Amino acid sequence: MSQNGSIRQRRTSTLNNDGVLFPGGRSSPIPRPTSLASVRSTNYSETDHSEILSPTPRRHYLIQRQSSQWLQSGGGISPSTSRPSSPLNPNHPTGGFRRHKPSLSFSSLAGNSKQKGAKVSGLNDSLARRWVKWMHKNKLKGWVLPIQILLALWVKWAVGLGSYSGENTPPMYGDYEAQRHWLEITYHLPVRMWYKYDLQYWGLDYPPLTAYVSWIFGYIANKINPAWVALDSSRGIELPNSKIYMRATVLVCDLLIYLPALFYFATKSSLLRHRSIRARHVAFFTLLLQPALILIDSGHFQYNSVMLGLTCQAFNYFLEGQDLLGAICFVASLGFKQMALYYSPAVFSYLLGKCLLLGWKEGSAHLIRIGLVTVLSFIVLFLPFLYPSFPENLLPPIQRIFPFARGLFEDKVANFWCTSNVVFKWNRHFSASLLPKLATGLTAVAFMPTMWALLSPGIKGFGSMASLYHTEASVDGTENKKSRRPAPTVSLLAHSLFQCSLSFFLFSFQVHEKTILVPLLPVSLLMITSAPTVEGSDWEWGVLLNNVGCFSMWPLLRRDGLSVQYVSLLALWNYAIGHNPFRQKSLQALTLAVYSAIFVLHISELVISPPARYPDIFPVLNTLISGGVFGLAWLWSLKRLVELSWAMGSLGTQRSSAPSSLRMNSLSNGTRTKPLAVQEVFSSSIYGDNSATGGNGHNSQRHSVSPASSMVRRRNTSVLPPTREEGPSTASVVDLNEPSM
């Protein structure tokens, strides 16, 4: 027998029944069905060499980690050693077939930053991401959300253990006493007296939904201890049990309204459907620990989370095309706090623009439905004030809700009026009756670009969505009367809400420093839908504005005795999300300059006493720094609206001149950009497909457009329904390409 024949004989003797070659005649640990494909030739000859195809083994976990380190670290492990012998080899150093599991230890959360490869600020190296990844790998995925919620509640409760607004400062005390006093008057007085009773001592000046919530909490408090809400005699009460009860009411509002809205956005929203489940968990954690809201609601003491939660839920419904439910939630948000009016121009423009895209028939019907739902919601909200005396009982709430008799701004707030008042005294040059008109006009000019960005696609593409509102067969064969789809301008809605609310904060009349919470909500939503490395800088701007927003409220927080909570929450949140200004890309210089100025100002307040001539020098410097950042953010919001509108074709320009990161290919017929009538944006659930995304967070059948996209991939998708005269026109749609976690 020839040498080749001897080799073939030795090979066949080591084959087991499954057709897998293994030394020593042992059975292979990997079952493999016998197939003729395992041996390509069984007719031996001197020129025929049999080829045995053994299964390619799965690489061991430790080997994957080792080669990953070689690929990312740039040294330490050579290519020759990055892929050693197969684990099927019994001489393998890992011990043959013994399975190694990752250690169930929190020490793995710390990680080795030098072995993580090139990092950027944000999700790639954050503590929240490492913890979520650790939970998922150890089959504790179902516990991630409950632990996050419990941690957030614990942080809020810990902040509430400190002082609050007006503690031990008679005779007016502060916002804590105002909220407690409203429980008192709503429980003991009839509805017609709620907005009339003793207005000099914290008269009720919020819309009716706040009064109804106060009545519920007052009713419960009276059942527990009537002394907590006794009419007049309970003013200034600061019993330990009453404080615990009031703090608990804030957590109850969070659990019932705010947290569910955030949970829905982070886990179900179409803006995050293209992201992996781990990334969505990190996004939810980022929203839960937003420091500004915790400091005001759980520290200073207010119920802003109710208004923000209702607004967030309305935004969730608009993303799904459920405009009627969104209108109800937004009216409820307006009914709780009038600050929700800061969002109203953007919401109105989006809904009206959608009606224009639907055409005369469907658009008019949809507009009538939205109008009826909105009017009925307001009627229900003010119903106790409409009967039996109308309009006598309705005027006091409206007069209290819109306090035009007050000044242009209150305290030191980082908006345009207070910042410019340092060099130009507005009260000296304009009368008290003219200043509200001036502020209203300037505010309207400031948010006009938002309205144009949302209305112009409807004007140019009037009726182009009408073909979408036809009866469609659902998956189970039943007929749906109307298909609920969001307008293509929904991709602009988050940026529009931010630009519009920031315009109100900067230029409107009678603004509080706490009002910065209103624009912080949409920019935080934009922040978590953006990867930390995007060219559009949504992540960097979101982190910077959240930090500067807290800093702008520093004079208020310091007066309330919340200095420790201020420093601790900012440090916790920035460390949890992995924010490092030294590793930023587009905003590194601005961020470092702002943080340096903030640090110097804080140190100066500790070691230097303000001069007698300028006792408010430090609050004024605070407004100058914060107001400058907010002004730059307003300009950036305009830039982003222009970029996104340009990419959508809202500006009527050719696609070829759009920014490179947002440019779409021209339509196949080479014509000028058309308004988008059909745009496959966000998740598949919007279009009737509720299938889960793939393991990496992407759906192979659906493509997504994020308002914060810059790491883009271009895919062909239908933009306008093809007609009989012209063929199918396609354009590229951009989506986030999130790095794997």
Fraction in beta strands: under 5%
Q: What is the multimeric organization of the chains shown? A: single chain
Pattern of helices and strands: HHHHHHHHHHHHHHHHHHEEHHHHHHHEE
Report the radius of gyration as a whole number of Å.
31 Å
Sheet/helix structural class: mainly alpha
Q: Which spans of ≥5 residues are poorly predicted at pLDDT below 50? A: 7-51, 60-107, 110-123, 471-483, 652-741
Strand count, sense and barrel status of the largest sheet are: 2 strands, antiparallel
Biggest sheet, strands in spatial order? 1-2
Number of helices: 25
* Average pLDDT metric: 75
Q: First CA to last CA: what distance?
A: 57 Å
Q: What is the global morphology?
A: globular
Helix-residue proportion: 40-55%
Number of strands: 4
Q: Would you give an account of this structure?
A:
With 741 residues, the protein is mainly α. Helix content is 51%, strand content 2%. The protein contains 25 helices and four strands. A two-stranded antiparallel sheet has the order 1-2. A two-stranded antiparallel sheet has the order 3-4. A hairpin with a 5-residue loop joins strand 1 (472-473) and strand 2. It is globular and about 65 Å long. The two termini are 57 Å apart.
Characteristics of this structure?
about 750 residues, two-stranded antiparallel sheet, mainly alpha
